[in-house]
């Protein structure tokens, strides 16, 4: 029976699936207990209710929610309803319904976030606890990055004592040894900041690694809504901090490499906190789509073009004096110069006091046509197309990011700082299940229409029941007479009911 329920959730015919679902549950002996068919999960740990959310079956989801709601009271256009949020709320769920929705790749599933009571539950959690905690976390992270930046700016350096080995050598300061790095009072202040930086990196790894093991690396880093790119950035940043610490303790030169990477990654991760603001959140989604979609594909083409033309430029200037044209004096510098030329950061290097090789003009002409005119305009066109596609769903993606952030904060924070949302069913004699109270206000005209609709439905139903009773009690000899009378009464009632429905349509 449980397998059939899961199959019905996946049926394309939603109306048929809902009727069959209700029919199967009518034969269930344990309707409310732990052995109920609705509470038995499949091999993936999904109950029929959670499966409807993952598959984006909004019709089945609303049908199941209507079965779970309890009308508390109704007065005129006001109605108070208790919605069962036991499986929806992520507070006590190992496999959260909200997390399943935002982590699925189906766009239809995100439409459930706009349905009652999911929309009201998310809004309650975000406004009461999610937004304040997230803003505090953003402020704390910015202060932490300021502390790390100051430690890097005032890192221990000393004047260089050795002689220069080349005219292009421009180094005047070198890194201090460990014994010389913490001597003065200013060094002790910097040591406090460095300890805070290292502790913060360790805390980041401690918080991130359990989620990677629980969700899986592919889903954790691959989902934009879950913050996948930013998780990669922050974990790499923490690793760079630990590498810098090891190099400092062992007095290894070259700590500027992991330190500079950590500065760039740490400050770029500040964009993660833009998802908490409606004005900035959609822009971060756009940036992620462009960087990890269009730009990643474009970088492969750009790398091939730069590699080919940089090699050509290096070969052309290999026999020339590097003092007159230093942009291509060795192969790494040729790669960097060609990259700058590709992005039109600099103009083509030329020294009119000396004769330039003829092949330089030919190669540079081809490079300008391919790189500047063709490939850069291709990148702009690709980004414009991505912007047009993402703009239609950026608000929907941003709301999904808010849900993912709320679930993340609810898992990380202690229970004392994040109490459970909703009302326990024991207060209304509904058991240990948790409910969310929602007040629905119907406009007066709409409320009047609904009353008319109920009256017309009841009239049709009563006429049908009366006709059925007459048909059952009539004998075989009077079958034709009763049947004709019944058809006449039905046509009369049908005409009056039809007239009432016409009035209702015109008013609507």
TrEMBL record:
Cellular localization per UniProt: Membrane
InterPro entries: Ankyrin_rpt-contain_sf, Ion_trans_dom, TRPV, TRPV5, TRPV5/TRPV6
One Pfam family it belongs to: Ion_trans
One of the GO biological process terms: calcium ion import across plasma membrane
Protein topology in the membrane: Multi-pass membrane protein
Keywords: ANK repeat, Membrane, Metal-binding, Phosphoprotein, Repeat, Transmembrane, Transmembrane helix
Main location: membrane
Gene3D superfamilies: Ankyrin repeat-containing domain (1.25.40.20)
Keyword presence, Transmembrane helix: yes
GO molecular function terms attached to this record: calcium channel activity; metal ion binding
Cellular component terms per the entry's GO annotation: plasma membrane
Domain Ion transport: start-end pairs: 134-393
Residue ranges of the TM segments: 133-157, 191-209, 230-250, 256-274, 295-317, 358-380
Cross-referenced PANTHER family: TRANSIENT RECEPTOR POTENTIAL CATION CHANNEL SUBFAMILY V MEMBER 6, TRANSIENT RECEPTOR POTENTIAL ION CHANNEL PROTEIN
Protein name, entry field: TRPV5 protein
This protein's encoding gene: Trpv5
